[in-house]
Amino acid sequence: MDLAVKDIRRHLGKFLATIIGVAMLLAIVLVMNGIYQGNIADGVWLIENTATDLWVVERGRGGPFNESSRMPLDAYKSVAATPGVAKASPMVIYSAQRDIAGKSQQFTLIGYDVFGGLGGPGGIVQGRAIAAPHYEIVADRKLGLALGDEVPFGTHEYTVVGITQGAVDASGNPLVYLSLPDAQEAQFQQDNRALAAARAANLKKLERAGYSSDQASRLLPLLSSSGDTVNAVLVNVAPGADSAVVAQHIRNWLYFNVYTTGEERELMLEGRLRKISAVLGLFRALLVIVSIVIMALIIYVLTIEKIRSIATLKLIGASNWVIVRLILEQSLALTLASFAVAYLLREMIAPNFPRTLAFLAAETALTFGVMLVGGVMASLMAIWHALRTPPQMALGG
Amino acid sequence: MTASPGALGSPPQVGAGVRRPVVEVENVSKTFGSGELAVQALKPCTFNVQQGELAALLGPSGSGKTTLLLSIALILEPSSGRIAINGQEVYNNGWTGVDERAFRRRNIGFIFQQHNLIPFLTALENVALMMQLNGVNRREATRRAKELLGYLEIAHRADSLPANLSGGEQQRVAIGRALANEPPLILADEPTAALDTERGSKVMSLLGKIARERKSAVITVTHDHRMIEGFDTVYHLDDGRLSRMPETITAH
Fold it and tell me: What is the distance in angstroms between the Cα of A316 and the nearest Cα belonging to chain B?
């Protein structure tokens, strides 16, 4: 006779309510797993989905993702001339916030050489890549744009010609690709009032330095900020060339920092993602511990409620195994059913979750294993108490 | 039931034929604590209970009744003496090493004051459980449990949970559970305490019937003097000292 099953059947409502409660907690653990992995997946998505061998950035900087990096546009020509370099392309990357599709949205603009350069969007699921030098964009689906939509950046309207799926920056914000000059313009172009203010300030600076008004006016263009700046140069190494040698050459002769895609990934994981990953990991571990503690308490309370029956069982001669099995089976049933419900809840939550959730089957299996072992461990306290219960407790009033 | 000290000699013959002793207790005593704090809960006592005998252990609270019952049930270790159940020595100035749970399962049926049925099992399952614990398969256990409930005239409540049974019905199910493995010895701890006089009398009649028909030895602990009429033997425990009450009072 399976006492655990009989007990569960008689107290089905209570057991189901307990399962739902524990399942909600476990669902949070599973979603936290997804957030943790999603955070990493988002963080390295752009690095891993940009077809390049080397990232050339401003010297002394860990750019272009962890730290700002500014380089003259022409730098890519010097890089391209380096022995072992097959192709070098400039890239602009910066974050923006605009009203798009009726709401204020954060996204990252990627400017690249649309005519055969590196750094363009991969995995266009709708439409096409940018084919014109200006005013076309490829946007991620997350922005809520459709093909043909017009989006204002700066003083121009841009037409959506392609849609990507899952193209996000390190913060999980969608990417918008556009041509390099358009990106530079959108990034650096100032409106008339700002230009006038900058011009007046520069004039005053020159006049304070002793230049006449006329001289200052003639020198003014030299002080104007240039928009010919890029954030990185992407490099494809020629077949047979050694990436490390090429990188060293660029470092030594062009005075830039150079990272391989692997190093760039490490920079991201060890830099920008490290703390948030640690926080999420800690939070995840705490949730698992809290879940196991709560399960232990539930199993313990379920056992205490049956302690007189357990004493009776011992008195009438039931072996310890009968009692251990009663507790253990209920613990396992609670763990298995709660995990199954938690899994369903996770599947329901995931599509509407505001951040990327990345679920690894191995990690889900590991969480299941930990919870299963935790469930067994949780029942140990109850088993210990049950086995210590004297059979004479069944006697008397 | 034969008690000593008191040199009561051979046990009374209940019904026809010679009956063998099911419970043999010789000079069993129990002392709790040691030194100045030692309390002798049970002074050395000797008695036998025969097959088919209905014996009562009477006494006020704290007189040592439960101590003696627990010792016979292999739950509480006495301080000295010898106990044999159904011919097997289980204690001789120390446990003899029997598997106490398995021994209880096969040889002793328990009836409690509060019935102590497993609340999440039906009446039928409560009785069948006892057999299944003893290795009887589910089908056979269910069949025999139904028979037992019929014998106890409660078959119509077989599928009821204990919470839906009256006190008297619960006690009948508890008696069914005690009889499930046809044990030679039944220990009843205040089986009528939670029942009114009428239901209590019925339960006592039932225990007498069981002792006679099933040849089990039944030892009933009670402090209720009204219930002693049906017993073959009545023993009184007072301050740990066992004495046999006059047979005239307890005439069958």
Answer: 6
